[in-house]
Amino acid sequence: MLDRETKDSYWLTVYASDHGVVPQFATIEVFVQVEDVNDNAPLTSEPLYQPSVPENSPRDVSVIQIQAQDPDSAHPAATDRLNYRIISGNPQNFFTVNTRTGLITTTSRKLDREQQTEHVLEVLVSDGGPSPRQSTVWVMVQVLDENDNKPIFPEKVYQVKLPERERRKKGEPIYRVFAYDRDEGPNSDLSYNIVDGNEEGKFFIDAKTAVVSSRKAFTAGSYDILTVRIHNQLVGLTVNIF
């Protein structure tokens, strides 16, 4: 079977002779050009694309360009008119693809990593031949985190009751204030400090663990109201002594 993509031409030598007592012969060279037909689907440069894009990206941010070639290079229609289309994985239209260049970009819909960390797109590439051939490729878009979420305290106010003690061990833990951040990596690192209610220096808080400890003894019936800050988020902590 002739395959233009394997060999596109042949030089043949044709030999002819007669049947005389002294045979006479002649030769001729024949050049055969194999014509192209659209029998190959487009091929992408990669079997799988794995780009990344920051969440909250504005419109028209480049994600990746799908590069494809058509082995039927002698067929102008098949070569110059490759068509790209996203056929699955994009129900909310976060992405769009240039049908001629294969460039995938963001749309006006904002990506949110906390809602979806990855988008798996299926892109169809088709040629422009008389009987179009097509192939598909997967594009796995990772959404990169940005610091767009505030830390969250599960409770607005915490109440702690402690027994009266004349003496307390220096730095004795009394409570741990817990908070979390929906971002990831360094964007989710938290730091705590007491910003109000600790004028007498009775308490201190570990900036990393959020463990509140006492420095002094307490008398029955006393109470303190502390305000703990974490990255501009405030929470109240009431300490009652009985």
Structural features, described:
With 242 residues, this protein is an all-beta fold. The chain folds into two domains: 43-144, Immunoglobulin-like; 157-241, Immunoglobulin-like (Sandwich). Helix content is 2%, strand content 43%. The chain contains one helix and 19 strands. Strands 4, 5, 8, 11 and 12 form a five-stranded mixed β-sheet that branches. A hairpin with a 7-residue loop joins strand 11 and strand 12. The longest helix has 5 residues, at 76-80. It is rod-shaped, with a radius of gyration of 37 Å. The mean pLDDT is 85.
Map the helices and strands.
Blueprint: E1 9-17, E2 25-33, E3 43-44, E4 48-49, E5 52-54, E6 62-65, E7 68-69, H1 76-80, E8 83-88, E9 95-97, E10 103-106, E11 118-126, E12 134-144, E13 157-162, E14 172-176, E15 193-196, E16 203-205, E17 211-214, E18 223-230, E19 233-241
Parallel strand pairs: 4-12, 5-12, 13-19
Antiparallel strand pairs: 1-2, 3-7, 6-10, 8-11, 9-10, 11-12, 14-17, 15-18, 16-17, 18-19
